[in-house]
Specification:
- The protein has about 325 residues and is of the alpha/beta class.
- It has two domains: about 35 residues, no CATH class; about 230 residues, 3-Layer(aba) Sandwich (Rossmann fold).
- It has 13 helices and ten strands.
- The chain binds iron/sulfur cluster and zinc ion (ZN).
- The site of iron/sulfur cluster (SF4) has 9 residues, from helix 7.
Length: about 325
């Protein structure tokens, strides 16, 4: 049974002798919860994930990568409520109305929780995503992912943050894992862990929502009255991860718990094996132009800048 039965009581309230009605059913945890207990269940699960993977502590300065979507705002909200020092970082990608709307929602939310939101305008740093796509013929998402990683890391270092937290949820992680497994892309598989430790000029990156589903984070946002951008970035259309999510959702519907099992068993059984292969370790240099970590002499963002310069001439 995957849906909430009519008249179900909250499992936690029931255990305390109270009779509140459940409004959420989590089939893979076999839990029926009222609004209040869903919120506390969500936050406890995030806290447990942070501890399980030793992501950070109350002494760390955390920069939350905020997109204006439900996951990043839910994450930011949960971290602040759990007592962590977490500020937001929004990159204005210059994707027309989508960027305008998501920036406004991120700003509204920052004001509501009373935490700083740093905003970086890609147009003044390098170029907007649509311009990069047009000048380089490179798919928007691959350029976008690369520049986001670069500026997030650089900004965090320059402003005294030692942790970058992103809102990737279980569905995101499972879709990526599924795609990488289909291709047996060992290079990506060996890096698919909820914590990427700090080394060679990279700040530690963590994914505290890696065991929270997309639906759970949407519900958490809804119950907390968080307004988030409800439409997708126009460039997300046709992404293979969306197709994978649809297949996986069908499996999950029939066999609740499949997603979580696929992901957690990978972390427990496969990930450690991949780490033992010494040959997989690559040498990192410093970019000759900007000094950021890079596998080549010039990092990908600096070479993209060069390409954009030539395209403009
Ligand atoms: Fe960037 Fe692609 Fe995501 Fe749009 S869908 S924000 S272009 S990664
Ligand atoms: Zn560089």
């Amino acid at each position: 049974m995957n849906r909430l039965k009519k008249g179900s009581r909250c499992t936690i309230c029931k255990s305390k002798g109270e009779k509140n009605k459940a409004i959420v059913y989590l089939p893979h945890h076999r839990l029926a919860l009222c609004k209040e207990h869903f919120i506390s269940w969500f936050e406890k699960r995030v806290e447990k994930t942070i501890k399980e993977f030793k992501m950070f502590s109350k002494n760390d300065r955390i920069l939350v990568a905020v997109s204006g979507g439900k996951d990043s705002l839910a994450l930011w909200n949960a971290l602040v409520r759990l007592g962590y020092e977490a500020d937001g970082f929004y990159i204005n990608l210059g994707i027309g109305q989508y960027s305008e709307d998501s920036k406004q929602l991120a700003l509204n939310f920052a004001k509501r929780i009373g935490r700083p939101l740093h905003i970086l305008d890609l147009s003044s740093e390098i170029s907007t995503i649509p311009q990069i796509k047009e000048s380089t013929n490179r798919p928007a998402c691959s350029a976008c992912g690369m520049v986001k990683r670069y500026y997030m890391n650089k900004f965090a270092k320059e402003n005294g943050y030692n942790i970058i937290a992103t809102g990737h949820n279980l569905d995101d992680e499972v879709a990526v894992l599924f795609g990488n497994t289909l291709k047996w892309d060992i290079d990506y598989l060996k890096r698919q862990y909820p914590v990427l430790k700090e080394e060679n000029g990279f700040i530690r990156k963590v994914k505290p929502l890696c065991k929270i589903t997309e639906k759970e984070s949407a519900l958490y946002s809804f119950f907390n009255g968080i307004e988030y951008i409800e439409y997708e970035c126009p460039f997300s259309e046709g992404a293979s991860s969306i197709e994978y999510k649809e297949y996986i959702a069908k499996l999950e519907e029939k066999h609740p718990g499949t997603k979580l099992q696929f992901y957690t068993n990978f972390l427990k059984r496969m990930y450690p094996i991949l780490q033992t292969n010494e040959k997989l370790k690559e040498e990192l240099n410093k970019c000759k132009i900007c000094g950021e970590p890079s596998y080549n002499e010039i990092c990908s963002v600096c070479s993209l800048k060069e390409k954009l310069k030539t395209a403009r001439v």
